[in-house]
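Support case: user asked for a sample of complex input and structure output to validate their parser. Sending the pair below.
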Amino acid sequence: MMKKSHVLVLDTPAIIKGYLQPTFNYTTQLVINEINRIADFDPSYLMALVEVLEFDKDSFNQVKKVAIDSGDFWVLSYTDLSVLALANQLKQQGFFTSVASDDYALLNVANFLGLNALMVTNKKPDFRLIKWRWYCPVCGYKKTLGLKVCPECGSPLKRSPCKL
Ligand SMILES: [Zn+2]
């Protein structure tokens, strides 16, 4: 890939809805696999729309940390995280990087990563950063450590938004 200033990384719904810029549209192989499972796109048509790039482990681990800290980690799929990892890596390579998705959790983490987050649908234009606090509804345990189950009593943790 050549040096370009503005790049766009798309998740599955963004591609299906055709939320593309004229050039420099990127995604991950996991997104392409997901599209192939749920939609009937001609593969050559799809390849003309978006270019598939590899994401690196370091970037993935950074994204994971930020997603755990924001409280979004457990509602994101591995495919979602791959989109963020690729975008994070392109940003670190000096590109002005936008992420297009209709997923609030994905875009929330994108914002925390300093990416330009683009909401594909316009259902709720008042998008804000949210920090989620995870808690145990049974014993009252409260810590956002990226856990899904209470370490004290084993109950599934729930989450609520807290102000930044
Ligand atoms: Zn508990």
